[in-house]
Amino acid sequence: MFCDEFLEYVDAIAAGDLPLDARATAHVATCPGCSAALADAQRIERLLKGRPALTAPPQFTARIMSRIRGDRWRREQFLDTGFNVAIGVILLVVVVGAWILLSESGVSSVAVDGFALLGSVARSAFDRVAPSLPLYLGACAALASALAVWWWAEQKTEI
C-alpha cells in the first residue's frame, strides 16, 4: 500500500467507518507519516465526539434551500440569456447571409415573380370559390349545430 492510497481513507478509518485491514496495518507500522496522520485523525475524532452536537436554528433548512434555489435560478437565467443571445446572433447572420445571397445573385427578382404568380393563383381560386362560400358556411353551421345537439343529448343529467 502507498501513502496516497492510505491517506485517501485515513478519515474513514479514524471514524470507524472503514476497518483497518492487514495491508493498512503493515503500512502504518512502517510509515511514520501515515502513522502520524492516523493518530491526528483519531485525536480529532475523539475531540469531535466529546463536543455536544448543536441544533440548527428554526427554518435553517428552508432558508438554505431557498438560497440554493435562488443561486441555481440565477445561474440558469445567465445560461438562458447567453443561449438566447447566441441564437439571436446566429439568426442575424443567417438573415444577413440570405439577404446578401439574394441581392447579389439576382434570385430576388425571381422570388418577386414567384410571389406575384402565387398571388394571382390565390386570387383566381378565391374568385372561383367566392360564389359557393355562403353554401359552405351554411353547411358548416348546420354541421356544428348538429354536433352541439348531439353533445347536449349525450350529457348525463343529474337528478
Q: Keywords for this structure?
A:
mainly alpha; single chain; 159 residues; 0% strand
Taken as a percent bin, the fraction of beta residues is under 5%
Distance between the termini: 83 Å
* Number of helices, where a helix is a run of at least 4 consecutive DSSP H or I residues: 6
Order of helices and strands: HHHHHH
| Structural class label | mainly alpha
Shape: elongated
Rg, please? Answer: 39 Å
The counted number of beta strands is: 0
Contiguous runs where pLDDT drops below 50 for at least 5 residues: none
Helical residue percent?
over 70%
Largest sheet: none
The chain-level mean pLDDT equals 89
Overview of the structural elements:
By secondary structure, the chain is mainly alpha-helical. It has a domain at 3-50. The chain contains six helices and no strands. It has helices at residues 3-15, 22-30, 32-50, 60-105, 107-129, 133-154. α1 packs parallel to α3 and α2 (22-30) packs across α3 (32-50). The chain is elongated, with a radius of gyration of 39 Å. The N and C termini lie far apart (83 Å). The relative contact order is 0.04. The mean pLDDT is 89.
Question: What does the secondary structure layout of this molecule look like, with pairings?
Answer:
Layout: H1 3-15, H2 22-30, H3 32-50, H4 60-105, H5 107-129, H6 133-154
Can you give me a brief rundown of this structure?
The protein is an all-alpha fold and 159 residues long. The chain is 83% helix and 0% strand.
